[in-house]
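Worked Example 4.2. Read the sequence first, then its structure tokens.
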Amino acid sequence: VANVSFVEPAALLEAGAAPRLCALLGESEPHLLRMALTAIVNLSAAPAAVPHHCIADMLAAGAPAAAVRLLDYFDLEIRTAAAGAVAALARLPLFAEGLAAAGGGASLARLLGQTALADEPRVHAIASAMTPLLVDEASRGAARAADGVAALSGALQAIGSSDTRLALLVALDALVGGDWGLAYTEAGWAPLIGALSQSSKAIVLAAARAAAATLETPGGRDSLANGRDLLLVCATLWALSREHASLAAGASAAHVALLRRPAGLEADGEGGLLAPALALLVEVADEPRFTGRLAAAGALPALLPLLQGEHEHALVVARSLSPLLKDDAAREAACTTANVRAVAAALLAA
């Protein structure tokens, strides 16, 4: 039947194979289970072609609970086959709710944590199966309690394929209910960085809001130690700030944190980051709606030390300073003897 199901799903469904296959999911012989799961996947491949009476029969046979139980089976191959069957069944009407109620989201989260991340097709299948089962706060909470955020974030850091990364991000977005602050709380910056570098606008914006809120706190800024990641976050937030003004405060905080990095951006193995950071600053500082945000975040005190000595970026620093000094409060605060001497020394050196 598993073999025939590749080519004759309609005939098998009409003959009543679906509920009988679901009943077999209670058996204990691994080979039998693998074949039954394979046949269920094939019979469910075209959801619109599955008659309603077959769906009702499968539900009556306890298919959702039986498939979810096999996600915790002792044999990894059976667990993976069960993930494929869950993903296929979730596309049928009424099945996603049943699979979710049976704890499918939490079981898939555990399965992902047990899966070798080098096995990308398996990771992709599990992530794709998880998303439709996170239908309410109860299912999301159970999956988070099963370390789903950590499992998805870990896979996100290890996987290079854009398709699989997107599947992981969509699952993670469903898991946190669109609140990427939860992702940061449970897994740090890794999921936010992964989300900001993807093409899904809704996910990027949700992650950007969480990143901006995090960067407005000293602990959040200090926790992002990698300069390249900080520059990515900074550039993304500035780009989005043109349409979403609420992100400008976080972008300013990120930019100032970038300029204040200990030992400078060229002395700690991150050569080349200072130039783009300053170039971006020149671009945004010229926009009046951003100038006040930068000044309030402490851009002037962060920039002035970069004028000292024969710094190759002094000219760009000076260009960044000019629009910021138009703010009366910022200018008054910056007009100290030490700062005036620093500017004068840079002028003489030039």
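Now turn to a second chain, presented in exactly the same format:
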Amino acid sequence: YRHIDCAEYYANEHEIGQALQIVFAEGVVKREDVFLTSKLWNNHHGRESVKPAVQKILRDLKVNHLDLLLIHWPVTGNVGPTVQPSIRETWQAMEDLVSEGLVHSIGVSNFSTKKVDDILAYAKVKPAVLQVEVHPYWRQDSLLTYCQEKGIHVTAYSPLGSPDSSTMFQRKGPKLMDDPVLASVASKLNKSPAQCLIRWGIQHGTSILPKSVNEGRIKSNLDVIDWELPREDYESLCGLVTQERMVSAKFWIHPSGPYKTQKDFWDE
């Protein structure tokens, strides 16, 4: 693993910084071998807040720059007709960090194509990455096509269908990891369902963020580089009927706005 996906909200960047310090000192990897991403949390939008927040991230990670900084969600916690501070103000503050060398690239997470279009209308530094939920139960084909046309890389979170968040979001529908088509493909290839999903994501054109605290699964999740899903198996996973988000935006919905419904939030 070389891409470390961090965020203020995860509250573990100081621990990651300690681990990085050890592996750098021991010569396991150099700083330039590691791609560090972090995300700006909702309460750190705005011209005055962005730089201090990133400086704290850098202190916690014990590095002098981020490879990628994302806006975590297109929300700031305000109630009213529009997001305040505006996404434009926050984006322009992030652009300043690129000029200063504190951040090499900038992007967004959980943004719709409409919201990305809004940024592209004024951006001096265009979004390099869009990080969103992508897996066979939520393929996001039109969004991927859009990003390809705009030259924006897509990173897929929850590539296994976010099984650990089902209680938090009170989901009652089918679970991707239990899908019979996936089970059949995994059995045929003598791979785990998780390996097949991660491999599907790579072949679907995204980079992947598998998450685990189990050492065995962490190792097996990486064993996806030297083989491919046969075309018919890839296409069968592309044809799963269930299409629904596993990660909800319900926590950001308010009757007074900026987002009154989830359709408002996702611009659907």
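Notes for the reader: The mean pLDDT is 95. The beta strands are 3-5, 35-40, 66-71, 103-109, 129-133, 153-157, 207-209.
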